[in-house]
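User: I'm writing a tutorial on reading structure tokens. Could you give me a worked example: one chain, its sequence, then its tokens, then a sentence or two explaining what the tokens reveal?
Assistant: Sure. Here is the example chain.
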Amino acid sequence: MSHDHHDTDIDWNEMLPLLEHGAELQTPLYRKAAAWLGELASATAVRRVLDIGSGPGVLSCLLAEAFPYAEVVAVDAAPELLRRTRERAATLGLTRVTTRHAELPDDMAGLGGADLIWAANSLHHLGDQRAAIQGLAGLLRPGGVLALVEGGLPARHLPQHTGIGRPGLEARMDAAKADWFAEMRAALPAAKEEGDDWRGLLAGAGLVPSGTRTFLHDVPAPVPDSVRDHVIAHFTRQRHALGERLAPDDHAALDRLLDPADPEGLHRRPDVFLLTAHTVHTARRG
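And here are its predicted structure tokens:
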């Protein structure tokens, strides 16, 4: 089955609520990751942090809290996401959080030096990941740390067999998303095939790998309303984004799951949960 590249375009303004709420729900995970980074790069010595692909700024603000003496620069190409970052920082009184509109990789050299660079699920939106890592490595000050959040485990929200349709719906959704992801990557400017050997790519940029850790986020059933709302928003987004990549019976299953009146739907079923894991790869400039 062929697909037009336009279905791999991402409307960041439309995605903003899902991105923001998802990051907020996973604050405990990201606090643990930030605390680990504080051991690798002394929290008292870090004076400037770049948050590459900062989105709505949830992580930018958490990094500002974890590194109390640092200016944190939220870097993104979407003005609406940067606007939300400024609003969040103002609400929290974090005057050390600033924003920078930048189209990467073209504007990378102008970002300035940093003691810590955090790039969470953003590098895969750049066509040449090897060149991007080399560019980020060049921004690190001596002893500085580059942290890439890439990989981990796909999120799970439902039992293998939901009682609706065939078992394994989320696994098939993951497979369809993997195809979407490959097409998205192939359509990027200067796209190059590159394996996900993040440690090797970091070392190839002249950095010294300083550890990889995976952080788990586990909210078992029964979930609070905030998590249930996020799960519903996630499935709604996937139903729209994956479109004809899913089989008709999986479409029908999603329609039932998203029906507020269906007793076995996401709005009512008691077995909804949230389980995922994010992997952080780090390396230091000598």
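What the tokens reveal: Residues 144 and 245 are 43 Å apart (CA to CA). Residues 5-284 form a domain with the Rossmann fold fold (CATH 3.40.50.150).
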